[in-house]
Amino acid sequence: MPVIDVTQDLDTRTLTITAEFAAPVERIWRIYADPRQLEKVWGPPTYPATFVDHDLTPGGRVTYYMTGPEGEKFAGYWKVTAVDEPRTFSFEDGFADLDFQPNPDLPVSTNVYTFSEHDGRTRATYVSTYETADGLQKVLEMGVIEGASAAINQIDELVAS
């Protein structure tokens, strides 16, 4: 399994997931840069994603929805804040309605995804910081660790194909 560590810290309001992939950094970067590849790994296997907008540039916007097993849809958005291809990108990630308008009742996180070479593999560090400890606690209760880990664990299969 690619996920090798998960750390949550309510004091710093952060969730950090570390993973390693059997592929070079540039290959892992392409997954996040290409919405059709990203659809195969964003969201747990039973909640596949569909990306509607995908502008992975500073100031860009990414919108998507995940479709659950019963056909229900859950939307989200990113506001891309920084990109240093192929090493890192940063973005705000939030929940949205199906018109991709932010849902103010659910927490927003600031995210930094970093990819580095590590013993011929790629080490990915995914850090999400929430505005409040309550916001982090809310997504923990919603199953963010399980969902994100299941999503990330799909990447090895994608890069092997």
Instruction: Tell me the number of strands.
Output: 8
Level-1 CATH class name: Alpha Beta
Helix and strand string, N-terminal first?
EEHHEEEEEEHHH
Mean pLDDT: 96
Based on the structure given, which CATH architecture is correct? 2-Layer Sandwich
Instruction: Look at the helices and sheets and give the structural class.
Output: alpha+beta
The number of helices is: 5
Main β-sheet description: 8 strands, antiparallel
By CATH's scheme, which homologous superfamily applies? START domain
User: How many angstroms separate the termini?
Assistant: 16 Å
Radius of gyration: 15 Å
Portion of residues in helices? 10-25%
Poorly predicted spans: none
What fraction of residues sit in β-strands? 35-45%
Tally of structural domains? 1
State the CATH topology: Alpha-D-Glucose-1,6-Bisphosphate, Chain A, domain 4
Structure explained in plain terms:
The protein has 161 residues and is α+β, with helices and mostly antiparallel strands. The chain has a single domain, classed as START domain (Alpha-D-Glucose-1,6-Bisphosphate, Chain A, domain 4). 23% of the residues lie in helices and 43% in strands. It has 5 helices and 8 strands, in the order ββααββββββααα. The chain is globular. It starts with a strand and ends with a helix. The relative contact order is 0.24. The mean pLDDT is 96.
Observed structural traits:
161 residues; globular; 5 helices; Alpha-D-Glucose-1,6-Bisphosphate, Chain A, domain 4
